[in-house]
Amino acid sequence: MSTTHTLERRQMTLGPDRDPDRPQRDGVFARLEGHEQVVHCEDRESGLRAIIAVHSTALGPALGGTRFHPYADEQAALEDVLALSRGMTYKNALAGLDHGGGKAVIIGDPRTDKSEVLLRAYGRFVASLGGRYVTACDVGTYSEDMDVVARECDFATGRTVEHGGAGDSSVLTAYGVFQGMRAAAESVWGAPTLAGRTVGVAGVGKVGRHLVRHLLEDGARVLVTDVWQPAVDAVVASHPEVRAVPDTDALIASPLDVYAPCALGGALDEPVTDALTARIVCGAANNQLAGDEVGARLLDRGITYAPDYCVNAGGVVQVADELDGFSFERAQRRAAKIFDTTREVLRVADAEGISPAVAADRVAEQRIAGVSRLGAIRVGR
After folding, report:
1. Is 204 labeled as ligand-binding?
2. 7-84+100-163 and 170-366: same fold?
3. Is 39 annotated as a binding residue?
4. 167 among the known binding-site residues?
5. Which family does it belong to (predicted)?
């Protein structure tokens, strides 16, 4: 009896030895130049179609979650994974972790396409990278899924408590966003508190619902919206003082002190920026700026932007801590430092007259350059 091996791996290694004659282009091709490795994964029998992108291992093994999403096509998935993996390099650097940046996307609807076999096939691909990439949860994947992936590889974190993991990373993600928001409030209003301020939270799923609790405990007034009505209903049922609005447009148009995008990326484009009444933008969503010009536009309007990858690093701090044997108290102390990091980013932005987005990049790049340079040191006896 014969069997057909259906696991397929298409790899692009994008390091210093890439083809010098390959034409330079804008868009995806330009961004590929900054990635060390991009692996396309396919297993026909389980239906797995995935892309793993390793942006940088300058600080250590690339660490970043796996997103399970019904992308329109492979090109859209590639666009997303390249942007997300690059963001993880900067996020991990700014968070002080000894990890580079990577990300993976699985193409499909997690509600209907996810299966044990698919996740285990994906785990085989992660294992094939030999530890260059460590995966965790993201949109569409959960700690239980990482338990399944871990049955095929040693490079999955963010696992359930029952399997020795840290459990839900959204808890410390929300805590870190709250700390970043406190630092932004100090920068704008002189005190690190949201007491008496009105905060609009767009997206009250995994992270947003925990953020709402922190804000209410701090004395803030909270408005919420979400494309999934049951998420809104659950938050309002738990916190009757929260006011729900119909959609994001209505939320943005409301009188706000702080706008907190906590859903998918690209939440801030020029029309949204021009419509905002808030003095601060600080939320959990990744890649919030639709373009570099949006950061400058926020600055011109006098709106303080707390860079997303700076403030939403609590989750990656948590899953990185798990690799050392998880301690919630230790991980929470590390996540609390997001307050100081955000304060420093805003200080640099103010001192140099640049947007916080540019300032955050500079602070992260300085750490990457400084630490990666240590590899050149040779100590003799």
Report:
1. yes
2. yes
3. no
4. no
5. Belongs to the Glu/Leu/Phe/Val dehydrogenases family.
Beta strands in the chain (DSSP E): 7-13, 37-43, 48-56, 62-69, 100-107, 133-137, 198-202, 221-225, 243-244, 258-261, 280-281, 304-305
Alpha-carbon distance of 109 to 27, in angstroms, equals 26
Sort 40 into a burial class: Cβ within 10 Å, 0-12 / 13-18 / 19+. Answer: middle
Q: Which CATH superfamily is domain 7-84+100-163 in?
A: Leucine Dehydrogenase, chain A, domain 1 (3.40.50.10860)
Global confidence as pTM: 0.85
Q: Any known ligand binding at 208? A: yes
Q: Is 337 a catalytic residue?
A: no
Fold of 170-366: Rossmann fold (3.40.50)
Q: What's the pLDDT tens digit per position in 196-225?
A: 999 999 999 989 999 999 999 999 999 999
Pair 107, 70: CB distance under 8 Å: yes
d(CA 324, CA 335): 16
Domain locations in the chain as residue ranges: 7-84+100-163, 170-366
203 φ, ψ (degrees, to nearest 5): 105, 105
Sign of CA dihedral 272, 353, 336, 308: positive
pLDDT at 10: 60
Which residue in 91, 103, 114, 337 is the catalytic one?
103
Instruction: Find out whether 27 is annotated in a ligand binding site.
Output: no
What is d(CA 223, CA 272) in angstroms, rounded to the nearest whole number?
17
